[in-house]
Write a structure and sequence with these properties.
By secondary structure, the chain is mainly beta. The protein contains 2 helices and 10 strands. It has helices at about 45-60, 120-130, and strands at about 5-15, 15-20, 35, 35-40, 60-75, 80-95, 105-110, 135-140, 145-150, 155. It starts with a strand and ends in a 7-residue tail after the last strand.
């Protein structure tokens, strides 16, 4: 299985995250989910180069201040392995444009858990809220998308029942 390399960024403004509601692509593993901004590495890109390109492509914004928060390892059944560089950003310039992958919306941070999210995303949102220093989070899903295992910094993590 060839691993995928991706970035994901949550842009912050006025105690809100810029979220992407993935409703425009037909065959999309994230169909109908709310996620951050990001995508796959191209060529010889570094994580930062991928981040800046993907944010510009999907939102029209140019990031001016961002922080590498962690690495998330996703395993889904036997067919998917992804290493995702997770960022938050608090500075940007430019005008937001329409995204061809879904609808962009500023969502209050306190309301993000009410959205249709991957269960593991709720774990890393909690880590971001705690302002935890750099972390490594491994999330293992079944082929049906059910979170079955989580490890934080190499140690098993009990999956909270309220997720």
């Amino acid at each position: 299985m060839q691993p995928e390399l991706t970035t994901l960024c949550y842009i912050e403004k006025d105690d809100k995250y810029l979220m992407l509601h993935r409703v425009k692509k037909e065959h999309d593993i994230n169909k109908d989910k709310w996620i951050g901004i990001g995508g796959h590495f191209e060529g010889t890109e570094s994580p930062e180069e991928c981040l800046l390109r993907e944010v510009k492509e999907e939102t029209g914004l140019t990031l001016t201040e961002y922080r590498f928060r962690g690495i998330v390892t996703f395993v889904c059944g036997t067919e998917c392995l992804e290493y995702m560089a997770l960022y938050t950003a608090s500075g940007y310039e430019g005008r937001m444009k329409e995204c061809d992958e879904g609808n962009l919306e500023w969502v209050p941070k306190k309301s993000v858990y009410d959205l249709e999210l991957w269960t593991g995303d709720k774990i890393f949102f909690r880590l971001l809220e705690e302002n935890r220093p750099f972390f490594s989070l491994k999330l293992v899903y079944t082929s049906e998308g059910v979170l079955q295992e989580a490890c934080l910094d190499g140690k098993p993590l009990e999956i909270p029942k309220d997720l």
